[in-house]
Amino acid sequence: EIAEALFPLAARPLTGVRVLLTAGPTREPLDPVRFLGNRSSGRMGFALAEALETLGARVTLIAGPTALPAPRVAERIDVETALEMHSAVMARAADCDLFVATAAVADYRPVEPAENKIKKNADALTLHLVRNPDILAEVAARPSPPFTVGFAAETDRVEEYARDKLTRKGLNMIAANHVGGERGGFERAENALTVIWRNGQRELPMMDKTRLARELAALIAERYQEHHAASS
Amino acid sequence: EIAEALFPLAARPLTGVRVLLTAGPTREPLDPVRFLGNRSSGRMGFALAEALETLGARVTLIAGPTALPAPRVAERIDVETALEMHSAVMARAADCDLFVATAAVADYRPVEPAENKIKKNADALTLHLVRNPDILAEVAARPSPPFTVGFAAETDRVEEYARDKLTRKGLNMIAANHVGGERGGFERAENALTVIWRNGQRELPMMDKTRLARELAALIAERYQEHHAASS
Predict the structure, then answer these.
(1) Contact (CB<8Å) B33/A153
(2) Phi/psi at A105 (nearest 5 deg)?
(3) Percent of residues, chain A, with pLDDT higher than 70
(4) Range of the domain at A58
(5) Which of A59, A228, B90, B166 is geometrically suited to a Cys-Cys bond with A19, CB 3.0 to 4.6 A?
(6) Distance from CA of A42 to the nearest CA of B (A)
């Protein structure tokens, strides 16, 4: 209520907008002890969830395992695996206006996790993995999809892969960043993004993730409003 | 120096003893983004490192990636993979009196991590893993080994597997705990241990990890002194 008193409506362009946002990594258990994970800290997603709330949105955050303090959002659901994240998103996809997929969802999971700890008794081991569902593509392919924003974390050919992902999955926007090496992204406090939509593009240069999240939230709000003006 | 003033020498039975202690998980990269990990928080190892320092020891901590605050120890070396932990330990094994291996070292690593992010383009994926070196067994098998304490995290048949590990690897002591399910251990604040040596055994019941670490440190000091009295 304080935020509503302080900001005029124009500064809260997402008032009344229901946002579903995924963040963090997922973990795919191999057995009760070992898992397949990834380096997403969840920091960018948590900051973006807060920034969208500040713009007036009601954010439901679906979070993988992170070590971050709880963000100020309307609702939070904790999950561990890609299948759990998939269920949590699909149960809510019909009731959201804007879907933002920042989570680094594991593409593959072990065919069948072992119930007891795998004993090591061989010099080599082969793990058989199967593909996880593509949450982002599935939401974007719904009959009346929400405005859908994806993320692309790439180690090379960032813009090319991101534009391909935008088209192939039928997204409204995609925010692409370069991960690995010295260029920000996973496990770092700073990041830079190339934000791409069908007929436009904007560069958000290297900056603190909190500030970057605010700039990205403002850009999402701008494109979301444009989209609704065009389709009404 | 304050500790030395406050505690009589009898309360600091490890004065002058050089301890090498490993803690936390290791991560085995599949590519710049994905890794094989495990659920060790490092909490038990960090608490034990501090408890051993309090008993007078000079602790060198070799730590995998954790989200814990820095413990009060003489020296700390951060590593990520099992091979890095192996190198860090082997470089120092000749200069320690007591080796405590609390780390949950990955048994296997990918044959060759991919330099760029693996693109997902198949319904199934096979990962080929190879065995990592056994740091604990290698230290215990040195010509003049330090007093060597291992840990065993098991999901079933805890005592049987632990006693087998003690004998097979030639350890002086092993602390075994049950992981997975509701019984403490990984990712929990409490834990219980069954501590086993060649001709003895002690149960440390479920308690806070800090207190448990103090009791285990005292027991290690007792067995260490006994061992040196017997061999001199």
Answers:
(1) yes
(2) -80, 135
(3) 88
(4) 14-106+129-231
(5) A59
(6) 14
